[in-house]
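Model it.
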Amino acid sequence: MAADAVQIWLAKQQVAELRQLYGFATDLIGTGGPAGVEEGRAIYRRIFAADARIQAGTSAVVRGPDAWVDFVRDALEPYSATQHLIGTQRVDVAALPDADGRGGRADMQSYVQAWHAKPDGEVWTFIGTYHDEAVHTPEHGWQIQSMQLVGVSEDVRQLGSR
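Modeled.
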Protein backbone atom coordinates (compact mmCIF):
# COMPACT_ATOMS: atom_id res chain seq x y z
CA MET A 1 0.00 0.00 0.00
CA ALA A 2 1.36 3.44 -0.92
CA ALA A 3 2.36 5.82 1.86
CA ASP A 4 -0.33 8.36 0.86
CA ALA A 5 -3.02 5.66 1.00
CA VAL A 6 -1.95 4.73 4.53
CA GLN A 7 -1.97 8.39 5.60
CA ILE A 8 -5.45 8.89 4.10
CA TRP A 9 -6.74 5.76 5.86
CA LEU A 10 -5.26 6.93 9.17
CA ALA A 11 -6.75 10.42 8.76
CA LYS A 12 -10.19 8.93 8.04
CA GLN A 13 -10.02 6.83 11.21
CA GLN A 14 -8.94 9.79 13.33
CA VAL A 15 -11.68 12.04 11.95
CA ALA A 16 -14.36 9.33 12.40
CA GLU A 17 -13.30 8.89 16.04
CA LEU A 18 -14.20 12.53 16.69
CA ARG A 19 -17.88 11.76 16.05
CA GLN A 20 -17.74 8.54 18.08
CA LEU A 21 -16.31 10.46 21.05
CA TYR A 22 -18.99 13.09 20.54
CA GLY A 23 -21.81 10.57 21.11
CA PHE A 24 -20.17 9.34 24.31
CA ALA A 25 -19.54 12.88 25.60
CA THR A 26 -23.07 14.02 24.79
CA ASP A 27 -24.57 11.21 26.87
CA LEU A 28 -22.25 12.09 29.77
CA ILE A 29 -23.38 15.71 29.60
CA GLY A 30 -27.04 14.69 29.31
CA THR A 31 -27.33 12.30 32.21
CA GLY A 32 -23.98 12.04 33.99
CA GLY A 33 -24.60 14.71 36.62
CA PRO A 34 -22.02 17.43 37.36
CA ALA A 35 -19.07 15.02 37.00
CA GLY A 36 -20.44 13.81 33.66
CA VAL A 37 -20.82 17.38 32.43
CA GLU A 38 -17.17 18.09 33.22
CA GLU A 39 -15.96 14.84 31.64
CA GLY A 40 -18.06 15.60 28.56
CA ARG A 41 -16.68 19.15 28.48
CA ALA A 42 -13.12 17.82 28.42
CA ILE A 43 -13.99 15.54 25.48
CA TYR A 44 -15.75 18.37 23.61
CA ARG A 45 -12.65 20.55 24.08
CA ARG A 46 -10.59 17.77 22.49
CA ILE A 47 -12.89 17.14 19.52
CA PHE A 48 -14.04 20.69 18.69
CA ALA A 49 -11.82 23.57 17.61
CA ALA A 50 -11.93 26.46 20.09
CA ASP A 51 -13.87 28.60 17.59
CA ALA A 52 -15.98 25.78 16.09
CA ARG A 53 -19.30 26.72 14.48
CA ILE A 54 -21.94 24.33 15.83
CA GLN A 55 -25.65 24.11 15.00
CA ALA A 56 -28.48 21.64 15.51
CA GLY A 57 -31.43 21.99 13.16
CA THR A 58 -32.70 25.56 13.11
CA SER A 59 -31.15 26.50 16.47
CA ALA A 60 -28.86 29.49 16.70
CA VAL A 61 -25.24 28.89 15.77
CA VAL A 62 -23.09 28.28 18.83
CA ARG A 63 -19.35 29.06 18.87
CA GLY A 64 -16.91 26.77 20.65
CA PRO A 65 -17.09 23.64 22.77
CA ASP A 66 -17.96 25.30 26.10
CA ALA A 67 -20.99 27.08 24.64
CA TRP A 68 -22.06 23.77 23.07
CA VAL A 69 -21.80 22.01 26.46
CA ASP A 70 -24.25 24.58 27.86
CA PHE A 71 -26.61 24.09 24.91
CA VAL A 72 -26.54 20.29 25.19
CA ARG A 73 -26.90 20.28 28.98
CA ASP A 74 -29.97 22.53 28.78
CA ALA A 75 -31.50 20.56 25.89
CA LEU A 76 -31.09 17.20 27.63
CA GLU A 77 -31.98 18.38 31.16
CA PRO A 78 -35.58 17.03 31.07
CA TYR A 79 -34.43 13.49 30.29
CA SER A 80 -33.50 10.76 32.76
CA ALA A 81 -31.58 8.75 30.15
CA THR A 82 -30.19 9.37 26.70
CA GLN A 83 -28.16 7.43 24.18
CA HIS A 84 -26.64 8.66 20.92
CA LEU A 85 -25.94 5.82 18.49
CA ILE A 86 -23.58 6.86 15.72
CA GLY A 87 -24.01 4.74 12.61
CA THR A 88 -22.75 5.00 9.07
CA GLN A 89 -19.86 7.41 8.71
CA ARG A 90 -18.32 8.75 5.54
CA VAL A 91 -15.08 10.71 5.68
CA ASP A 92 -13.60 12.46 2.65
CA VAL A 93 -10.07 13.76 3.20
CA ALA A 94 -9.70 16.92 1.11
CA ALA A 95 -6.09 17.51 2.16
CA LEU A 96 -3.61 15.72 4.36
CA PRO A 97 -1.65 17.87 6.81
CA ASP A 98 1.78 18.98 5.67
CA ALA A 99 5.00 17.87 7.37
CA ASP A 100 4.42 20.51 10.09
CA GLY A 101 0.89 19.23 10.80
CA ARG A 102 -0.86 22.15 9.09
CA GLY A 103 -3.43 22.31 6.34
CA GLY A 104 -5.32 19.06 6.83
CA ARG A 105 -9.02 19.25 5.89
CA ALA A 106 -11.78 16.64 5.80
CA ASP A 107 -15.54 16.43 5.48
CA MET A 108 -17.60 13.85 7.36
CA GLN A 109 -21.21 12.73 7.38
CA SER A 110 -22.49 10.52 10.20
CA TYR A 111 -25.91 9.08 10.87
CA VAL A 112 -27.31 9.34 14.38
CA GLN A 113 -30.21 7.71 16.13
CA ALA A 114 -30.68 9.17 19.59
CA TRP A 115 -33.27 8.28 22.16
CA HIS A 116 -34.15 10.39 25.16
CA ALA A 117 -36.27 9.02 28.04
CA LYS A 118 -38.23 11.18 30.48
CA PRO A 119 -38.86 10.02 34.05
CA ASP A 120 -42.57 9.46 33.18
CA GLY A 121 -41.60 6.81 30.59
CA GLU A 122 -42.07 8.95 27.48
CA VAL A 123 -39.28 8.44 24.92
CA TRP A 124 -38.32 10.82 22.14
CA THR A 125 -36.33 9.20 19.33
CA PHE A 126 -34.44 11.47 16.94
CA ILE A 127 -32.87 10.37 13.64
CA GLY A 128 -30.54 12.67 11.77
CA THR A 129 -27.26 13.30 10.01
CA TYR A 130 -24.24 15.22 11.25
CA HIS A 131 -22.36 17.20 8.60
CA ASP A 132 -18.86 18.09 9.81
CA GLU A 133 -15.83 19.92 8.53
CA ALA A 134 -12.62 18.91 10.28
CA VAL A 135 -9.21 20.57 10.29
CA HIS A 136 -5.80 19.41 11.41
CA THR A 137 -3.43 21.58 13.42
CA PRO A 138 -0.04 20.74 14.93
CA GLU A 139 -1.33 21.64 18.40
CA HIS A 140 -4.52 19.56 18.44
CA GLY A 141 -4.48 17.10 15.56
CA TRP A 142 -7.88 16.60 13.91
CA GLN A 143 -10.79 18.64 15.30
CA ILE A 144 -14.28 19.53 14.13
CA GLN A 145 -14.34 23.12 12.87
CA SER A 146 -17.99 23.11 11.80
CA MET A 147 -20.93 20.86 12.72
CA GLN A 148 -24.48 20.95 11.40
CA LEU A 149 -27.03 18.41 12.65
CA VAL A 150 -29.91 17.89 10.22
CA GLY A 151 -33.00 16.07 11.42
CA VAL A 152 -34.54 13.34 9.27
CA SER A 153 -37.29 11.90 11.48
CA GLU A 154 -38.48 11.71 15.07
CA ASP A 155 -40.99 9.84 17.18
CA VAL A 156 -42.45 10.13 20.68
CA ARG A 157 -43.93 7.11 22.49
CA GLN A 158 -44.23 5.44 25.86
CA LEU A 159 -41.61 2.92 26.94
CA GLY A 160 -42.94 -0.58 27.30
CA SER A 161 -42.03 -2.93 30.11
CA ARG A 162 -40.88 -6.54 29.90
